[in-house]
Design brief:
The chain is an alpha/beta fold. It folds into two domains: 9-169, Rossmann fold, CATH 3.40.50; 171-486, pyruvate-formate lyase- activating enzyme. It is 37% helix and 16% strand. The chain has 18 helices and 18 strands. It has helices at 27-34, 48-51, 58-67, 81-94, 105-114, 131-139, 184-190, 219-223, 232-245, 262-275, 295-304, 318-324, 332-342, 360-373, 390-398, 427-441, 446-455, 459-474, and strands at residues 9-15, 41-47, 71-75, 99-103, 122-124, 152-156, 159-162, 201-204, 207-208, 228-229, 250-253, 281-283, 308-314, 346-353, 377-382, 406-407, 486-487, 499-501. Helix 4 links the parallel strand 3 and strand 4 (99-103). Helix 9 packs parallel to helix 10 (262-275), helix 10 (262-275) runs parallel beside helix 11 and helix 16 (427-441) packs across helix 18 (459-474). It is globular, with a radius of gyration of 23 Å.
């Protein structure tokens, strides 16, 4: 006897327009789809970012109306949060009985500010790979027990309740994301590379969690502080599946701390080497922690298919690093860079410019470090106060920024915050000058410098970035903090006078 309904519950998972297809793909939604029981539910992913369909698109409207979902889940980040609210409003206008569920980084940080929005029924904080399916099962019961759904935020008569986030230790219980549900090949075609060659590539999530306390980062809040790992066997099955079934030749490990457990990282590399995957390569685009590794690991990574490693000093100033709570001793940096190069790998680096409390003389120390290490490439990012980070909350508390500002984009040169020390500083001029200085400082690296920009990134993206930097160099005020580029987090008409009920 078939215990499942003949007319399956329909689940629409929406990836809002606003996500940049050259940077991100809906891997979180593909995780959800693969971990939902397909015998019970019909799940469809609506990728509006790839198709550049806004919430008022007639195409999207007709698709939702035709699919007629019972539940609509939307993954959101700060830049597209307002778009997300409009999507929720749209699906409710089509069918008021549709259950709307929001998840993603912005929800994890700001659920208490969103719970009063009428068109939002439920929210999930943190990981929902396993708990979302439990939620769907519970939704169909007459007597519902929301308290058992990890990560769920839901309304009550007296306010709302917020359940503890899901922090599953046995990551192998989570099924491999359904890559067939997202148009991975189309993403690669239009420029999604994430610091990888233009080969068929795919993201891998090997470990989760971050034990560090960097004030500009929300990773510990999103995925917890303990570092959890998939088994080596699980990961080799995942990699082999992508390699043989989808033709994947480059694997981007999107972890925050892949090398945190050095012994595990070495075992991973040895297992990859044993697979003997011809033409396969690996990258860690979020960077590695320099203190978590040694020369043997760099050698194994080279042999396993890494071509370069990205490190994240963030600053060359001890004063700035202390403000960031980076927990990095600068004397480590040149030593590790030298080891990485000795292992036959190129070395790239992340730096933040204009951190709160940073001085111009601190920036001079950063320049000295870059010149001393001769990195093969550097990423120089203007500081952005990201919602959900300790530094964001501190700036709000000090009254230096308004709480609830939503930038249209974190990568287009516009700034939500500029410290007093850097009010007249030309960020774009500095960035262009630094890249020129790097080429003068190490002429033999020039081919790699330009090759990386046009081979590991979308040429269209490179040209766009260059034009934006040139424009902002001559018109810096256009890229300073302005209300024209930042909008209130909440719909003004919404009442948020609700109280939390602690578990």
């Amino acid at each position: 006897m078939d215990i499942y309904p003949k007319n399956k519950y329909k689940i629409a998972l929406v990836w809002p327009n606003g996500y940049n297809p050259e940077y991100s793909i809906p891997i979180s939604l593909s995780y959800l789809k693969s971990n939902i029981d397909e015998k019970k539910y019909e799940v469809r992913i609506f990728d509006n970012a790839l198709r550049k369909l806004s919430c008022d698109s007639e195409i999207f409207y007709n698709e939702i109306k035709s699919f007629d979902p019972n539940v609509v889940g939307i993954s959101t980040w700060s830049p597209m949060f307002l778009e997300t609210l409009e999507i929720a409003k749209l699906v409710k206008s089509i069918n008021s009985k549709v259950i709307t569920v929001l998840g993603g980084a912005h929800i994890t940080s700001y659920y208490e500010r969103i719970i009063g929005v009428d068109d939002v029924d439920f929210m999930f904080r943190g990981e929902a790979d396993l708990s979302f399916g439990v939620f769907l099962d519970e939704l169909q019961k007459k007597k519902k027990n929301w308290n058992k759904i990890k990560g769920l935020v839901y309304k009550t008569k007296d306010g709302y309740k917020c359940n503890d986030m899901d922090r599953e230790n046995n990551l192998d219980l989570i099924k491999i994301p359904d890559y067939s549900a997202i148009n991975l090949e189309e993403y690669v075609k239009i420029g999604y590379r994430w610091n990888s060659p233009p080969d068929p590539n795919a993201p891998l999530w090997v470990t989760r969690g971050c034990p560090y306390r960097c004030q500009y980062c929300a990773a510990p809040d999103l995925n917890g502080r303990p570092v959890r790992k998939h088994s080596i066997e699980y990961m080799m099955r995942w990699i082999s599946q992508l390699y043989y079934e989808r033709g994947t030749r480059w694997f981007n490990i999107i972890d925050d701390n892949f090398t945190f457990d050095v012994k595990y990282a070495k075992a991973f590399c040895k297992a990859v080497i044993k697979l003997n995957l011809k033409g396969a390569g690996f990258g860690t685009p979020n960077g590695i922690r320099m203190q978590r590794g040694d020369f043997e690991l760099w050698q194994l990574m080279k042999k396993a298919g890494w071509r370069h490693l990205i490190v994240a000093p963030e600053s060359g100033s001890t004063h700035t690093l202390e403000l960031m709570k980076k927990d990095l001793k600068l004397e480590v940096v040149p030593k590790v860079v030298k080891e990485i190069r000795k292992a036959g790998l190129k070395c790239q680096a992340f730096f933040i410019i204009g951190y709160p409390g940073e001085r111009l003389k601190d920036l001079e120390e950063t320049v000295k470090l870059i010149r001393k290490c001769k990195f093969n490439f550097v990423f120089l990012a203007n500081f952005h106060p990201l919602p959900g980070t300790p530094v964001y909350d501190d700036l709000v508390k000090k009254g230096e920024i308004k709480d609830g500002l939503l930038p249209n984009n974190f990568a287009d040169g516009h700034r939500a915050y500029t410290s007093k020390e850097f009010q007249n500083f030309n960020f774009s001029k500095f960035i262009l000058k630094m890249h020129l200085l790097m080429m003068i400082n190490d002429p033999l690296n020039i081919p790699y410098h330009f090759g990386l920009m046009f081979n590991l990134f979308s040429p269209k993206l490179v040209v766009k970035k260059f034009v934006l930097n040139i424009f902002s160099m001559f018109f810096p005020k256009k890229f300073s903090a302005t209300a024209n580029y930042f909008q209130p987090m909440h719909v003004q008409s919404q009442s948020l006078n609700v109280s939390v009920i602690e578990n």
